[in-house]
Amino acid sequence: MTEQGGGRDIAARVVSRFVRSMGKTHAFELPGGITNAKSLLFIDSGDVVDLLFAAPVVNCFSARFPHIRTTLLVRSSESELVKGLMRVSAIVSYEPKQLKLHSADYLALARKLRKKGIDAVMLLDRRFSIERHLLAFATGAPVRIGFAHPLSYPFVNCEIRVADGGYEGKKLPRILQALGLGLEPGWDDVALVPREIQHARQLKHFWKPERDLLMVGLDPSTGKTKHHVIPEIVAYLANNLASRRRAKFVLFGNPWEEKLVRSLSQDLRGEILDLRPSNLTETVALLSQCDLFIAGNTNLFHFAAALGVPTIGLFTRYDRQGWVPEAAPRVRIMQGVRGEKLSLKEFFQNVEDVLEARTESAPRV
Hints:
By secondary structure, this protein is α/β, with parallel strands linked by helices. It has two domains: 10-178, Glycogen Phosphorylase B (Rossmann fold, 3-Layer(aba) Sandwich); 194-359, Glycogen Phosphorylase B (Rossmann fold), CATH 3.40.50. It is built from 13 helices and twelve strands. Strand 8 (247-251), helix 10 and strand 9 (271-272) form a beta-alpha-beta unit. The longest helix has 18 residues, at 3-20.
């Protein structure tokens, strides 16, 4: 445990003791405590890929229980993306500074949520966050649902335990099963804002009018395990692909990792399209139009897999099996070995496999 993590745990335990002393708990039944609620608040995790993973949960309530007013608390930078991914009655957006526990902004946000008269809260973070868990408690909701954690109670009074194993993207939807609510056919379909998709299609047609030309997205960003694929490796594969097939490249990346994107662009020998999305919504829309996507275990890798984009995942030794999408015929994983070059033969076979899978079924967007 790091010193910072230990400090946060101590703070959480202190706050927990204070919260326990504040009073009574509310009796409730499941799933009635949820399905009979008039208002339900979802609190984000701060990780954009969790919005993708949580979308089936949120959309289930909107589709099956239209009497429930659903609200999502989400970062301002991700609120536009949510409008396509999730069907919610309302969005409450926040800036990161508002989640600083000792700030006036945090207290104002807690009061704002308290005034909404929330009947149930669902935390979408599998980790413990004192800021988000305390907000859940501050709403005064009788039912507060979250993943099991030693520090969760009393902030959460309905803890969900999810078995280890399987794809991380399938764990949030298991909340529904734990609550006695099943998953319906097509539960994992992904939707985006229609106008953004239309705009991305127009850009693609303008920059790549030839149908036999591949628009290949490349993302050298840091992945979910805090490691990234060396940009030279991504360029090595992309350049070899361009030597065999007509291709143009679109570069993706986190705004704070511009150095990785620049390093990749310097090593590419093919044409790089001048397409730089200005926000997350535009980024995901453009990604959905790629003919092929090559990336490490990044946020966009998981969006591409969910959107049905033919995708090659370049995993490091730190990327465990739990990050590999399940039942994804348009995804292939190449696991790197330190000191060894990736096999071009395997790479080209993977490219052919995912492109062939694309032609066998209609796109999901």
